[in-house]
Structure formats: C-alpha cells, structure tokens
Amino acid sequence: MSHGKLRKATNCLNCGAEVQGRFCHVCGQENIEPAETLWGLITHFVYDITHFDGKFFSTLRYLLFRPAFLSIEYVRGRRHSYLHPIRMYVFTSALFFFVFFATKPAQIDDSSPEVTEYMARRSQLIQRLSLATDTAQQRLLSDSLNKAEAVLIVMEEIGIVKYDSTISKERRLQLEPLVQKRRPRVSLGASADGLTKQQYDSLQQSLPEARRDGSIQRWLKEKTIQLNAKFQYQSGGVVKVLIDKFLHSLPIMMFISLPLVAALIALLYWSSKERTYVHIGILVIHNYVAVYVFTLVTILFSWLAGFFWSDFFGVLAVILFFYSIFYQYKALRNFFGQRRLKTMLKYLVLLFFSFILFVFLSIIFVINSLLQV
C-alpha cells in the first residue's frame, strides 16, 4: 500500500467498478489520486523494495533452517506471508548464475616446477646458440630451440603458460609448421587421419557399401574434420568453446531437471496419497533454492578464505556442504513424515537416480553444445 492521497470519487480508474474502501474488490488497484509527486514516487519505490526484502529474507530464514516448512505451509494454503516459490526460484537462480558466470576463472599458473625447468632450458639454449661458433653445433642448437619454442606456443594455446611476448609474430609464423605437428588434434573417438571432408567422402565412395562407415561413425568423423579445420587442430580451443557453451546452458538444464526430480520423488513416495505431484514439485523448487543459496554462501566463504588467508572459512564451507546433504534428507522426512530409516533409504535411492539423471542430461547438453560449435 502506498501513502498517496485517497480519491473522493469511488469509481475505480482501472476497471470502473464501485470501490468500497481503499482498494478495488474487482481488480485490486488502490483508489488514490493519479497525480504523483517526485517524493511520492521515491517513497513508493523505497517501500516496495524494503517490503520485498523483508518478505524475501523472512522466507529465506524459514527455508534454510526449517527444511520443508515452506512447502508444508504452501500445501496448507498459508502463502501470503511468504515469497511465492516460483518468484523465489527465479530470483535466486538468476542471482546464482550471475555470480557463477561473473566469477573470474583462476589465472594461469606458469610457476610449476615443470614449466620453470622448461623455461630455464629454453633460456639456456638461446644463450648457448649466441656463443656457438661451429656451424654444425649452431644448426643442432637452432633445431632444439625451434622445437622448444614450438612446444611453448602449443602450451600457450592450451592454457598452461601465459603468452610469451619475446617470441615475435615473424618467429611464430616461421615456427608454424612445427607447431602444427605438435598441436593435439580434435578427436571424438573416431580418427579422420588428417583427411579433409572431400577426401573422406571420396574415400567412402571408393569402398564397398558393406565396408563404409555407419551413420554415427560417419557423423563423428565429419564433425572431427570440421572441428580440426575450424580450430586449426587445437583441441584446447574446442574444449574451451564446448565448456563455455555447456556452462551457459546450465540454467536451462537445471530448470528442465525440476519436474524430473519431482517425478523421481513421486515414484519413491507412490503410497503417499496426501502429497500430489504438484506438492512434490513445490518441495523440489524450495530444495533447489536452498542449494543455490548454500552454493552462493560457499563461494563467499571461498573468497573470504583467500582474502584473509584463513582456514576458518574453509572449515565453514565443509560444514555447510555436509549440512546441505543433511538438509535434503530432513526435507523429505519433514514433508512426508515417514520414519528415519525408511526416509534415509529412499534418500539414498533418490541420490543414485538423480546422479544418473544429471549425467544423462549433461550428455544431451554436451551433444547439443557440440552441434552448436
């Protein structure tokens, strides 16, 4: 409710119905003067924000510390005092994935002993080459340096080491044939032996029909040829693009998994007639929101642990992890009211089949990401 001035007229400006009191009983619009001051607009905005925050955080308190309480309240029809589960899911998942994608990946660490040793060897080769006077020795050292720097360029492409500005563009062009040989090729379990699409098609046409690749094998090889041509045989580039596309499809995958997880729970609690599939869906939505919040807090703890160089927040993150596992069990027990042992057995079965479900969905979304590359 706003603090605007009440109109003297009793006709609703929105639907025209006769208003009894401050709100229209037909459409719910507040019967206040349409002219609004700047201060009124600001106070209205602040009121709506603080009202939402108050409702959100009070709902969040029940959600995190009283598993299944909100779901039971929703089933009983007590809904006005709490944030609607769908609205809460949309807000929390949007916040979660915003933080998830905004979190910067770890910087490349090229200070490992293997990389340090390799860089020292390269510097040694450059120094020895500058001092060498024998032609044969110069040629040998030059070949070794070429191979070493070609490996370095491949390591840059994969992401093991940072870009080395001491290797000029001209030098990189000169080393390209060596780099090409050392790049790990893209492979989808079906080697194309470096063939082009035309060469592969020609080879298949020359074979008897009985010896030609099947549809799946043919698709894998053609996709391998396409990716190698597109990414210049840089498997690291393919993996990075594939992971990026898959990660950006996670919000859709999680949303699709909601009704499927609810169906698994419904099958496990088939005899519980007082809980419908829709009721179980509300429970799953609340549990998903709780998982998102737990994960966000874990990310916060990880950041604090790195900022303060303290194991305290790492311990808190471990405690929170085990609490989130216990939370899911407790939510099932509170919602369905079955005995501890029976609930625990069903919870373990649910974890097993949920794992299979998410593996299956991940495979589908990985294939979909691969088709988009």
Question: What labels describe this entry?
Answer:
elongated, 13 helices, mainly alpha, 70% helix, 373 residues
TL;DR of this structure?
The protein is an all-alpha fold. Helix content is 70%, strand content 0%. It is built from 13 helices and no strands.
Characterization of this structure:
The chain has 373 residues and is mainly alpha-helical. Among the domains are: 1-35, no CATH class; 191-229; 246-372, no CATH class. Helices cover 70% and strands 0% of the residues. It has 13 helices and no strands. It has helices spanning 38-65, 69-76, 85-102, 113-131, 135-158, 169-182, 197-206, 215-230, 235-248, 250-268, 277-308, 312-336, 340-372. α5 packs across α6 (169-182), α9 packs across α13 and α10 (250-268) runs antiparallel to α13. The longest helix has 33 residues, at 340-372. The chain is elongated. It starts with 37 loop residues before the first helix and ends with a helix. The mean pLDDT is 82.
- Run of helices and strands: HHHHHHHHHHHHH
SS strand fraction: under 5%
The level of helicity is 55-70%
The biggest sheet amounts to: none
| Whole-number mean pLDDT | 82
Continuous helix count: 13
Rg to the nearest angstrom? 31 Å
